[in-house]
Design a protein that fits this description.
- By secondary structure, the protein is α+β, with helices and mostly antiparallel strands.
- The chain has two domains: 127 residues, no CATH class; 91 residues, Glutaredoxin.
- The chain is 67% helix and 10% strand.
- A four-stranded mixed β-sheet has the order 2-1-3-4, sandwiched between helices.
- The relative contact order is 0.10.
């Protein structure tokens, strides 16, 4: 009887060990799959943005169809915004490790480059869209900041659904110590996180202001 009990105990221990290791293996595989997907998106987006940047830099050398350039910029803005939402969901479901943080930084730089390109297109083509850059705290936000950022993210998502291609919604983490982003933060005097910057002129730092954002988008 005692031997049977020991055998059952050892059998249960072995099964638990196997299941535990399978869980770790599947978790690591899923994590790796998510990172690979982010890498693929980044490469595709980076290539497309480089193409648009070359187009923008070529102004003055060749004639451009502004309508086409603006349409492509809007389409690309929608693509990287949708990817940002999916990446955010991945990050919520994943362990925040060094590789995830690096990928996030790469996307922040990509979106920053897109923002700069979008400013150039506005100067050249005078389109009727608005740039909305959402600076937020990525690393260890306080409970108050996290709560506020959740509300602002939801409000901006609703605004994007309503305005569609009338706004370029560009979320950027402001605390990843990236020199190019730090320069822009200093240039536009972003001193509080989160902050929404509209058309490089108007700063919104409160939820009440954000709820009345329509008055800035006419």
């Amino acid at each position: 009887m005692e031997k049977n009990q020991k055998y059952i105990f050892l059998q249960a221990l072995v099964i638990t060990f196997i299941v535990f290791n399978i869980g770790i293996f599947m978790g690591n595989k899923l994590e790796s799959s998510r990172i690979d997907k982010i890498n693929q998106w980044y490469l595709e987006s980076d290539l497309e943005l480089l193409d648009q940047k070359i187009q923008s830099d070529a102004f003055g050398l060749i004639d451009f169809d502004c309508d086409l350039l603006v349409r492509e910029n809007i389409r690309f803005a929608d693509d990287i915004y949708e990817q940002a939402q999916i990446i955010e969901e991945y990050e919520k479901a994943s362990r925040i490790n060094n590789e995830i943080v690096i990928q996030h930084k790469r996307y922040d730089l990509l979106r920053t480059l897109f923002w700069i390109n979008s400013i150039k297109i506005k100067e050249k083509c005078n389109p009727d869209y608005h740039n909305l850059v959402y600076f937020y705290k990525y690393n260890e936000p306080s409970l108050e900041q996290k709560s506020k950022q959740n509300v602002i993210s939801n409000l901006l998502f609703q605004l994007k659904q309503e305005k569609q291609d009338k706004i370029m919604l560009i979320p950027i983490a402001a605390d990843n110590n990236l020199f190019a982003i730090n320069l822009l933060i200093e240039e536009y005097n972003i001193t509080e996180l989160p902050t929404v910057l509209i058309d490089e002129k108007i700063k919104i730092v409160s939820i009440n202001e954000l709820e009345e954002i329509d008055k800035y988008l006419n």
